[in-house]
Amino acid sequence: MATKGLTVATEEQFYVPETLLKKRKDQEKIAAEKCKAAERAETYVKKYRATESQELRLRRQAKASGNFYVPSKPNLHLLFESKVSTKFYQNHAKSFSFCVLSKPIMMYLLD
């Protein structure tokens, strides 16, 4: 068997299907989003630990001085944008059933 004249194909000569390229691109995008989510989670953990240690410090400080410490609780407000049907009747019970809640907007307020 003669192997004269045979060459090995380079990466540039390979044909890669477009669907495979799209899949790779999507997977890279998902991996980047996961990395960003992990970084955000780490910042939230740091913030949570800092607030917990501050609460503990304030509680101990109040106990040492003979006082009471009342921790502040955050309020969570959940707002909805409402869409009302064009057929709006005067009967409130009937008209309220035509309201459709959409686009929830969450606000996190600290006191």
Structure description:
It comes from Diversispora epigaea. With 111 residues, the protein is α+β, with helices and mostly antiparallel strands. It folds into two domains: 16-70; 72-111, no CATH class. 47% of the residues lie in helices and 17% in strands. The chain contains two helices and two strands. It has helices at residues 18-64, 92-96; strands spanning 75-83, 100-109.
Distance between the termini: 84 Å
The main β sheet shows up as:
2 strands, antiparallel
Counting DSSP E segments of at least 2 residues, the number of strands comes to: 2
Domains, number? 2
- The strand order across the widest sheet is 1-2
Roughly what percent helix? 40-55%
Mean pLDDT over the residues: 78
Order of helices and strands: HEHE
Shape: elongated
Number of distinct helices: 2
Runs in which pLDDT lies below 50 for 5 or more consecutive residues are: none
- Please state the CA-atom Rg, rounded to the nearest Å: 30 Å
Helix/strand-derived category reads alpha+beta
Estimate what percentage of residues fall within beta strands.
15-25%
Pfam family, one: Ribosomal_L30_N
Protein name: Large ribosomal subunit protein uL30 N-terminal eukaryotes domain-containing protein
Domain Large ribosomal subunit protein uL30 N-terminal eukaryotes: 38-71
